[in-house]
Structure formats: C-alpha cells, structure tokens
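hi got a favour to ask and not much time before my train. below you get a single protein, a line of residues and a line of whole numbers that encode the local backbone shape. could you go over both lines and see whether the tokens make sense for that sequence. a few lines back from you is plenty, here it is:
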Amino acid sequence: VQGAESGCHTEKERQIVLNCCRLLTRILPYIFEDPDWRGFFWSTVPGAGRGGGDEDDENARPLAESLLLAVTDLLFCPDFTVQSHRRSTVDTAEDIHSIDSCEYIWEAGVGFAHSPQPNYIHDLNRTELLKLLLTCFSEAMYLPPSSDSSNTNPWVQFFCSTENRHALPLFTSLLNVVCAYDPVGYGIPYNHLLFSDYREPLVEEAAQVLIVTLDYDNSTSSSPTVDGTTTGTAMDDVDPPGPDNLFVNYLSRIHREEDFQFILKGVARLLSNPLVQTYLPNSAKKIQFHQELLVLFWKLCDFNKKFLFFVLKSSDVLDILVPILYFLNDARADQSRVGLMHIGVFILLLLSGERNFGVRLNKPYSVRVPMDIPVFTGTHADLLIIVFHKIITSGHQRLQPLFDCLLTIIVNVSPYLKSLSMVAANKLLHLLEAFSTTWFLFSAVQNHHLVFFLLEVFNNIIQYQFDGNSNLVYAVIRKRNVFHQLANLPTDSQSIQKGLQRKKKTPEPISRTNSQDGVSMEGSRPAAPAEPGTLKTSLVATPGIDKLTEKSQVSEDGTMRSLEPEASQLSPEGNPPTALSDGEPWSGEASHSRRDRRRLSSASSIGQWTPTPEWVMSWKSKLPLQTIMRLLQVLVPQVEKICIDKGLTDESEILKFLQHGTLVGLLPVPHPILIRKYQANSGTAMWFRTYMWGVIYLRNVDPPIWYDTDVKLFEIQRV
C-alpha cells in the first residue's frame, strides 16, 4: 500500500514492492487453506484508519480491498510498470494518483491505437503483480464445488467493480497484450533459444487473470448487455443495466469491426501456433497456454453475441476450427487432457447452433497440418467428421459422455453440407454400424440416442443436400443391410438376452476392424496416452445433452424459432430423459470411490436396469427410417440393373449415375430442420470454473504456487 501511495520512484522502493509481491504470492494459499483465516482479509486492521485514530476504524477498508487497489495502482505506475510520459527528474515525477491510466494502456488494440515501446523490465514487474492478483483470486480453489453458482468470488467481485478506477484500462491492457502477442516474432529460426522472451510469461499471466475475472454465470443474469444489444447510445448518461462485473460488461460491449478482427486474428494466431510446422525441429517457439485461450474464446462468444456473428460471418472461423480439431485429435487417448476435449467440443457445439457455421464448413480443406487421421481430399466438414470418428473409435473410455455432443454437432451442420468425401461418408456409416449392434443398443438405457442422431444426419443430407452427396448415397446403398437390420430389430426377451451375451465376448467398446482407416497423414504422430504419473485435476460432471441444448426449428426463410420447452423435455424419441444422461459412469469421476466406480461401470447403473421388450418397442417404433427406406427402394434396383447390364465392378460409373439421378417427388415430405442450440446453464458454469482453476493450478506447479496445498474445488490425481 505504501508503494502505491508513494509511486515507487526509487529503485529501492521498487525492490521492496516486488519482494512483498513474491512473499504474498507464496503465503496467501496457506492462509486460504485454513478455514479459520477465511475472514481475515475482509476485516480491518485496528488503527489502519486514515487518521490513525480509533474513531476512524469504521470507515477503514478491509485488507483485501486495500491490497487489490494497491496492486491495480501499481500496474499503472510510471517507470515501474508503464513508460513515463514525462522526461522526468525525481522532482517532477508524475503523481501516480493523478494520472489518467487510460493513456497508459499496455498495448495497442481494442480502444487504444498507440503501441508503447516494449520494455522488458516493465513486463517482468507486471508479471509479478498479475501473479499476485491471480493468487488473491484463487481463494475459490479452497471451496468445494457447489451447484449454487451465485456464490461469486469476493476478490473478483471487488476487483471488477466501480471501486477499481483502473478497471477499463486494465481490462483493455490484458485483452490487448494477449491478442497482440506473436510468439514467432521476427521469424528467425531458434530465436527463442537465444533471447529470453519476456512477453510470454506476461501474456500467460494476463490470459489467466482475464479468464478468472470473466468467471460469471450467464444463465442467472437476464441482462440485455450480455447479448451485446444495448438500448441507447454510449453518449447517454444512464449506464445500460449490465452485469455488475465491469470486465464482463466491457467484454459484452465491444462492437467495432476492427476490434473484433484484432481479437479473432490474435486468438487464431495463438491457437494455430502449436500446429506451425517448420522444417527445422524445435526452431519455432511453441506456446503452452492454448487451454486458457479456448476458455477466453468461449467467454467472448458466450457474452458477446455480436462477436459470435462476426466470427461466423467469414471463413475466418475455420482458423479457430482447425486448431480445435487438431487438439481434440491429439488429446483423444490422453486421460490427463479430458478437460481440453470437453472445452473443444463445447465451443464447436456453440458454433454449430448457427447456420453460418455449417455453410462455412463447405470450404475445401487444403492446409496440411500433420494429423493422425486418414488422408482425404475434401472440405472442412470432412475433416470434422473424420476427427470425430477417430475420437469415438479410438479415444479412451472417459470420453463416452461426449458422444452425444459430437453427434449433435454433426446433426446441426448436416443440412448445410454440400458434398461429403467418400472417406467421411464411410466414417459416418461405420459409426452407425457400430452403434446399431444389438449389444450396444441393449446395454445402456441411452445408447439408442446415438442411432437417432445419425439417422437424423442422413435424413438431413438426403432431404436437403441430395444433389452433391452421391458419395454418401452410394455408401448408404452399399451398407443398406445396416438399415434393414435396424428396421427389423428383434424386440422379444430372448433376442435381447442373446444380444447382451454377445457383449461379454467383445469387451472392445467399438470394433475398429471393418473401418478402412487407410494411411495416416505424413509427418503425424499417433495420439499418445498420458505418461504415467502425469498430474491431472478432476472435473465435475457435465449436464446431459438435453440440458445443454434447446431445440430450435429453422423456418423457410432461414430464421430459427425456439420450440416450446414441453417438447424439448423429451429426448429425441419421446422418452423422458433418464437419470443417466449425465454421462455416468464416466464424468463424475471425482465423486465415486473406487468400489462405486466398479459397480457403476457395469452395463447398467440405475439399480439393476434391464432392457425389456416394451422399452425396445417404445423407441424402435420412432426410428426415422422412412426417407432412407424410400431412397433404397428407388435406387437399389436401378444400381443393380446397371451393374448387371454393364458387368460393372467399377464404382465410378455408379457414382456418375447417382450424381445425375434425382429423387424429386419420390421422397416423403421434407421434415423441418431441427437445430439443438447450446443454452447457458449453471451446470456448465460450474464445470468451467473447476476446469479453468484446474488448468491454472497445473500450469503453476514449477515454481509452485498452490501445489501441495489442500485445494477443495477439485482433486489432484496422477494418471
């Protein structure tokens, strides 16, 4: 506090402030760990009133508040953390309390055009102060996860309130420092080995502080500004009623195209960094904070709808999509990266709720990022389907709760996919084949949902995009017996039992044989499991897909209208959603002891659930097979005739025939397009909180900040 009062004009004062910073960063976690000390920072120190007398104690600030205000003042302290604007001798040094910190924003970008001279000493000092801020905010780690997401973090609440006179310049500085960072620098190979990069630790710290300040439950607030649409202009005296959290408020009110462009380009550049391939190994610097960036991107899209529409307006969204697919594919076998898999899928689910995303996926995929997937020629939609297939067939078992989400994303984009490649078409049919085996359908109460999703994908493409999709139609014809088997699924008890017996022989979750995987891309490494002993943090369970999304119907003119909640209470085929939709037994991994987990991972987990003929009938009768059966009825005889007449074994002739064929007037009336849009809810808000703090905890193990203290928000586990 004294340093902030005096403005730290001497080297000695600056050193004292930095030492205090480091000591507090080291000690605070131990204070937070002890519940008896919890109120300590929110009490006042006797005699700390302005006049030093007892009568002043009433209006003295609690310790937490004076600490936070001192840190924010010091973050805009001339010659300590920002460039002084005066050629000053000590006598005329700027007064830290009278400066307008908006003129001292750390980096050009949103709302600020001037890029200050880089000064590595300032960067180091800012990093120390931000680390202390983050440690203050980390009290949240010492409270167990609660379903009541309204319990805001008092440190963050005060820091992001109007009490902090630097809130706007600080928010802008953090955002700009992150989005303007270019780790490749001047592009000299091995540059990062020769020069220490003082910016990177600052950018990392800034990203972490930023996502913690934006930890705000969107589902409880119905404020207009979170949508980015405020009434009135910026010139009005009345502030629009926004969230009290100023950081969330500012984020939701960014609206200039050039600001959106700056943010999107910056995030895309940083996310693509780990994918940058050079001919010289290790010659380019690889950043490690992609998870924080994904949380930041999520918050931007969730709190600022105008930003979301901007992202989807051009094919720039693909610069976000490709890195996410790369991370998903790379992490699919690694148990310590389940959180990364979830956030990647959540972002794609959010994007897939908008028509433009499906349209953008039709752009040809020409970037050749080495990925451990089959080589294909096609569009970004093909890439997405092939990666999702890989996750489902060769990811680890903890990813099962995500299958619903992955298929929902494909359903959401399917009405807009102009032409799938043969590789992607075969992958979709392979998934249907795997999910429609009797043992899979009968072994868990919600498994049949996956078949409904896939049938919906085929129906959307056949009804709305038949013309360009001869590859998919051909694949459907070739695998027609899968559809016939579904239509004739046995429903008597004996067959159900027989289907379940088969499971005991094949413990493999999904057979990987009969999927012709082909050669993987050149230069790719197979997705590896975590090294034994890798630290990971537990996550809370995510809500089931029926709670994560709400259904909207797309009208003729392309607008969407939300369907009444009564209808969406039912799962795809009209059964009430079951307790299992939470993805038990996989997602709530922290809450079950080992014994429970063993019991849960048996096929049935609600009491002793067993499939009955009535249950099978209840959803079998609703399988949407009419469109596909009609297509097979019309096309199969024609294709067979061509083969017999011309003695054909060559598929190119058949594909040519299918390309020119038409089913106009032969198919049932097209069904309305249903989109399942992500909707904010407190379950995901809590998931994001535990995930975000878990990431921050693990990124600060060396040197340790919280390591080995008794955190309550998650469990630390070793793989």
Notes: Confidence is low (pLDDT under 50) at residues 49-55, 222-240, 511-515, 566-606.
